[in-house]
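Lecture notes, part 5. Sequence design as translation. It can be helpful to think of inverse folding as translation between two languages: the language of shapes and the language of residues. The source text, in structure tokens, appears below.
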């Protein structure tokens, strides 16, 4: 009887401890300290000290037309406030508030339509890490530009320029005008009228989920532990033969081992002496090749088509530093 009583007491205390832990974590979520700090800074900037006592509350942007719910602003509270341009993350205001962001208000577009990731998550590990189960990993740096084509369907049309997406425009010019960079010699890309069959079609590669990409690509030859489709493409551009070496098989006639299925893709990064920054821009361009049947956007979000730049006009040059994809640890 004594043993049973001790065991019952131990299990009761364990259950009570677990219940207390759950209550504590629910009452003290990770985003609350960020909101308190935001209101303290806001009080200093406005001179209204009462703002510092504003209680934290869960906020979200619900976009039924896009079938998205974003809670990013629980931490990124200064995103639409230009007064927070001098603040560190997560309080820093969004860049280009005086530029293209004027026509992309947060209350209409939210965050994940451009940045992907898990809009409903409210902890750093699941919002800024590489989370295994997500269909779309968080996009940062130049990779964000690859999402512009979701609404701006004319981005890949001849002569059409989007200065707001310099990485995509650089990639567009690079693959269509650079000598010895003829992707259409092997790949089919409907956006450019390429119909080759020697290599996989790329027309909708940017619309593929992480899982669908992972199932048909080998990741064991990568240097990075970040196993995402963007990181794979980046490393594949840098050294195609290393990332897709094929498999070793014994030749029945000679008895010698030989590589079978090795990629025939040239190392364009080495040929053209591309920097890592340029390679990421090329990766962003490839990931901007989307399938409109998969990524449907309501007509209310479809802007007017742009007129092509006149023939003979100076080619668009990318401006600003292009940052790489996020270097986060893979979460399983």
């Amino acid at each position: 009887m004594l043993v049973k009583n001790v065991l019952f007491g131990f299990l009761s205390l364990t259950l009570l401890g677990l219940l207390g832990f759950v209550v504590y974590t629910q009452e003290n979520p990770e985003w609350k300290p960020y909101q308190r700090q935001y209101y303290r800074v806001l009080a200093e900037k406005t001179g209204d000290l009462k703002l510092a006592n504003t209680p934290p509350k869960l906020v979200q942007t619900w976009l039924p037309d896009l079938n998205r719910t974003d809670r990013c602003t629980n931490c990124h509270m200064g995103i639409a406030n230009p007064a927070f341009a001098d603040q560190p993350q997560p309080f820093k205001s969004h860049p280009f508030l005086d530029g293209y962001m004027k026509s992309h208000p947060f209350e209409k577009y939210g965050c994940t339509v451009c940045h992907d990731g898990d809009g409903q998550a409210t902890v750093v590990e699941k919002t800024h890490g590489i989370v295994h189960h997500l269909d779309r990993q968080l996009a940062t740096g130049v990779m964000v530009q690859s999402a512009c084509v979701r609404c701006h369907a004319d981005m890949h049309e001849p002569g059409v320029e989007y200065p707001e997406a310099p990485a995509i425009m650089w990639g567009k010019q690079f693959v269509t005008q650079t000598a010895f960079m003829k992707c259409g010699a092997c790949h089919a890309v409907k956006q450019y009228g390429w119909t080759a069959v020697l290599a996989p079609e790329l027309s909708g590669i940017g619309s593929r989920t992480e899982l669908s990409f992972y199932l048909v690509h080998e990741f064991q030859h990568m240097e990075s532990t970040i196993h995402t489709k963007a990181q794979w493409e980046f490393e594949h551009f840098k050294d195609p033969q290393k990332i897709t070496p094929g498999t070793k098989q014994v030749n029945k006639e000679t008895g010698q081992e030989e590589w079978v299925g090795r990629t025939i893709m040239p190392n364009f990064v080495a040929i053209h002496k591309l920097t890592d920054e340029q390679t990421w821009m090329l990766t962003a361009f490839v990931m901007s090749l989307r399938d409109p049947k998969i990524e449907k956007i309501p007509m209310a979000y479809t802007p007017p088509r742009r007129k092509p730049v006149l023939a003979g006009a100076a080619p668009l040059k990318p401006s600003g530093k292009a940052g790489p994809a996020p270097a986060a640890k893979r979460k399983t």
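The translated text above is only one of many valid answers, since several sequences can fold into similar shapes. Residues 132 and 332 are 5 Å apart (CA to CA).
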